[in-house]
Specification:
The chain is mainly alpha-helical. The chain has four helices and no strands. It has one domain. The longest helix is centred in the middle third of the chain and has 22 residues.
Length: about 100
C-alpha cells in the first residue's frame, strides 16, 4: 500500500474518514455524498494551493476554496461545510473549518 506521502489529498481524506468509521454508519447515500464532497474540496486544494498532505490543509486553504466557489447556493455550501467538519474531526484538527460567507 502506498504511503500517505504518495497519496492524493482526496485519497488521504477518504482514508481518514474510513479510519474513523464514518462511511459505515447512518444514511449511506448521505455519507457517500459527504465523502465525495470532502474529496472534491481536497482535489481542488491540491491543484490550486500545491498542498500535498492532509496535515497541511488549514483554514487558509478552506477560505480560498470558499472564495473560488461563491456561486454555490446556501444549501450546497452548507453540505460542503458539513463534509469538511467531518474531515476536520477525522484528521484530528481542533475546532471547525471556516464557514462560507
Amino acid at each position: 500500500m502506498p504511503t500517505s506521502d504518495r497519496l492524493s489529498l482526496a485519497a488521504q481524506a477518504r482514508q481518514a474518514l474510513r479510519r474513523m468509521g464514518y462511511d459505515r454508519k447512518g444514511s449511506k447515500t448521505n455519507r457517500r455524498q459527504q465523502i465525495e464532497r470532502a474529496c472534491a474540496v481536497m482535489d481542488w486544494i491540491q491543484r490550486q494551493c500545491q498542498v500535498h498532505h492532509l496535515g497541511q490543509v488549514g483554514a487558509r486553504q478552506v477560505v480560498q476554496f470558499w472564495k473560488a466557489h461563491r456561486e454555490f447556493s446556501e444549501k450546497t455550501s452548507y453540505g460542503y461545510w458539513l463534509a469538511l467538519c467531518q474531515l476536520w474531526q477525522a484528521s484530528g484538527k481542533a475546532g471547525q473549518p471556516p464557514r462560507w460567507r
